[in-house]
Amino acid sequence: MSEFQPSLSDVEYTGPRRTPKREEFLNRMDQVVPWSDWVALIKPHYYTNTRGRKAVPLETMLRMYLLQVWFHLSDEGVEDQINDSFAMRQFMRLDFGTQQVPDATTLLHFRHLLEKHKLGEAMFAALNAKLEADGLMMRGGSIVDATIIAAP
Q1: Contact 94/101 with Cβ under 8 angstroms?
Q2: pTM score
Q3: Domain spans of the chain?
Q4: CB 3.0 to 4.6 Å from 104: which of 3, 75, 95, 100, for a disulfide?
């Protein structure tokens, strides 16, 4: 994947500010996800177009898919959120000056590819094991701190 070059809006957000929770989460997941392992797992099944439109880079599609799963978004919803959210744009590592967000149909085909070869289950089982081993995820237990928020 090409080197990420910050845009004007990226530079605008690099000043001192409170980091939103979504951005913190995505930064953490960017460090935790075993990108090279997952890309290697999917690559034998990924499209190798020799004719027609060039395929979207595999890691770009994987990042978009993960955003969809983590934030429970539809195909169209994740496309919109990436265009709308600085944190998601940053996570995608797209240079919006030269690249576009993959469209919802492209994500749909990628998701079907993962489902067909049962790659999603393998990736998330490995990630969950890594998170548990690192003490970042707990199964069971009790709530220690609860925050009350106003809701309509």
Answers
A1: yes
A2: 0.75
A3: 8-133
A4: 75
16, HSE (Cβ side, Cα atoms, 13 Å): 0
Q: What is the pLDDT along the chain (152 residues), one digit of tens a residue?
A: 456 666 665 665 566 678 889 999 999 999 988 898 899 999 999 987 777 778 899 999 999 999 999 999 999 999 999 999 989 999 999 888 888 999 999 999 999 999 999 998 888 887 787 777 777 765 555 444 445 455 45
Region at 52 (left for phi over 0; alpha for psi -120 to 50; beta for the rest):
left
Residues in Cβ contact with 126 at an 8 Å cutoff, skipping those fewer than 6 apart: 34, 37
Residue with tokens 């890594």: 130
- Three-class HEC string of 75-136: HHHHHHHHHHCHHHHHHHCCCCCCCCCCCHHHHHHHHHHHHHCCHHHHHHHHHHHHHHHCCC
